[in-house]
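Q: I'm writing up a methods section and want to include an example of the input and output format. Could you take the sequence below and give the corresponding predicted structure tokens, formatted cleanly so I can copy it straight into the document?
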Amino acid sequence: MDETSLKPGDRDFVGALASGLQVLQAFDAEHPRMTLSEVAARVDVDRAKARRFVLTLHALGFVKRIGRQFELTPRVLQLGYAYQSSNQYRAVIEQYLEEITAELGESSSLAVLDGDEVVYVVRSSARHRLMAITLSVGTRLPAAYTSMGRVLLSQLSEQALENTLEGVELKAFTASSITNVAALKKEILKVRTQGFAIVDQELDSGLRSVAVPVYAGNQVLLGALNISTNSTRVDMGMLMGVYLPRLQSVAKKVQLIAQ
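A: Here is the clean output for your methods example:
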């Protein structure tokens, strides 16, 4: 996020709007249906506030009531559709990623940065499963422990990177995970210099991935592309010698067509 963006407490920051959006985001795969009390706990507001927000969203058609519980309605898809339809290049990227999957037999994705997380916006999945969770469009993962995340963090300004690293939560997902902010920043700066990132079994044992940034023709960052694989199947030589050049080739093709 731009370091000049508003913060809670600023004069132009609309707290009620922010809270309403937080309520929408509180519903996820683990919490598809909730009572008002559960919403209040998830958003960390009192029940009276949660009630007003949920009932307003209900009146607008974004949530529906089932007894004492509420769940999202298909209308929330309009928000995502507006975002997707404003980025027509994604259809082309999806085609390229599907070609990678067909050629290499590996999953390939495009993600963007949202705070200290990456959000998958295009995904081509291989048949084999790499993680315990199912990755799909909309999935969020910690940027610090993904190759796409480190690529995207490397594209931030110095101040924005510092601000992000100040609030990042580091944890040992595996024995290989970086758990020191200084070490993480050093790795991100290395990515900035070399133009690609490799993350080897830091988020999940056996999960190895490589990522590169992808730009529009006007040098605007579109996101990061990656190929993910299993460390027992693909060694570092294959990752660097075959997978990385394949991603770089796709990034160049996208830059030629995305204006």
